[in-house]
Amino acid sequence: MLHLTECPRDAMQGWPTFIPTADKISYLNALLRVGFDTLDFGSFVSPKAIPQLADTTEVLAGLDVSQSKTQLLAIVANLRGAETAAQHPQIRFIGFPLSVSETFQQRNTNKSIVQALDDVARMQELCARTGQEQVVYLSMGFGNPYGDAWGPAVLGEFTQKLDVLGVGIVALSDTIGASTPATIAPAFRELTAAYPHIRFGAHLHTTPTTWREKIQAAYDAGCHHFDGALGGYGGCPMAADELTGNMPTERLLDFAAEVGAAPELNREALKEAMAWNQRIFAGH
C-alpha cells in the first residue's frame, strides 16, 4: 500500500495572496476527513520569510483531529521553531529541510550544513523528550543550479550522519523538479538496502508530463511513502522564481490504484477537499 503525506503547507507557502485563516482551517479539516497517513499542515518559521504561514498556531487551534486517523506534521527551519512545535502534542512529526547543497542550506535557513546538522541533533533530542518524531528532508537531493555536489553517494553520506543521530524518517526531496528515473531509482535502491531500519519517503516536484515515470522509479526501487499536494500546487519559494509543482496527489492515487496499492480513503471527503482546493487556488 502507498502511504501518503498530503502537503497543503507546501501548496500554500508561496501563494501570492494571503489565504484567510478561516479558509485554511476549513480546507485542512476537510483533508483530515479524507484519511491520509500524514498532513503537512503548516510551519513554525519566521513570518518575514514565509508570511503566508504566519497564522500556523491559530490554524492549528482550529483543526479537529479527534476523529481523524491522520497525523499532523509541521515544518521548522531551526531549533526555535522545533521548540514551538513541540509545545503542541497533537503534532506527531516535526520536519526539517536539510540540504545537500551548501548554497541552498544558506539560502533556505541562513545556516551552513554543519550548523544545520547541529540543529538536527538538538531536535532529535527534543523529540526524544516529547515523544514526537523528526522527519529530515534531504533537499536538492536530485540536483541543484549552484554546482554543488549531489547524487546517491552524497545522499548516502548525509543519511549515514542522520542514522548516527537516530533519525528514523528521511525524505529524499527534489526541490526544483530536476529528478529523472535515472537519478531517482539508484538513490532509493541503494539507501533502502543500506538502511532498512530507516523509513524513506519521496518528496518529488514534477511537470504535468513527468509524474508517472518519477513515481514508478521510486516505487520500483522500494519507496512506498510519497508526498503530494492536491492539484499539484506549490513548491519551495526559496528555490527559484519559476517553479515546477508538487507531485499531484490525484496522480499518486491513480498510480496506487494501477499497481494494487491504493490506500483506504474516504472518497466523499476527498471530493469535498478537492472543492476547497479549487476554491482556494484555482479561484485566484
Question: How is this structure best described in words?
Answer:
This protein is an alpha/beta fold and 284 residues long. It has a single domain, classed as Aldolase class I (TIM Barrel), CATH 3.20.20.70. Helix content is 43%, strand content 19%. The protein is built from 11 helices and 9 strands. It has helices spanning 8-12, 21-32, 56-61, 79-86, 102-109, 113-130, 152-165, 181-194, 211-220, 249-258, 267-282; strands at residues 3-6, 38-44, 71-76, 91-99, 133-139, 169-174, 199-206, 225-228, 245-246. It has an 8-stranded parallel barrel, surrounded by 8 helices. Strand 2 (38-44), helix 3 (56-61) and strand 3 (71-76) form a beta-alpha-beta unit. Helix 4 (79-86) runs parallel beside helix 6 (113-130). It is globular and about 45 Å long. Residues 237-243 have low confidence and may be disordered. One of its GO terms (biological process) is ketone body biosynthetic process. Keywords: Lyase, Metal-binding. Its EC number is 4.1.3.4. Residues 1-271 form the Pyruvate carboxyltransferase domain. InterPro entries: Aldolase_TIM, HMGL, PYR_CT.
Topology, pairings included?
Layout: E1 3-6, H1 8-12, H2 21-32, E2 38-44, H3 56-61, E3 71-76, H4 79-86, E4 91-99, H5 102-109, H6 113-130, E5 133-139, H7 152-165, E6 169-174, H8 181-194, E7 199-206, H9 211-220, E8 225-228, E9 245-246, H10 249-258, H11 267-282
Parallel strand pairs: 1-2, 1-8, 2-3, 3-4, 4-5, 5-6, 6-7, 7-8
Antiparallel strand pairs: 7-9
Helix pairs in contact: 2-11, 4-6, 7-8, 8-9
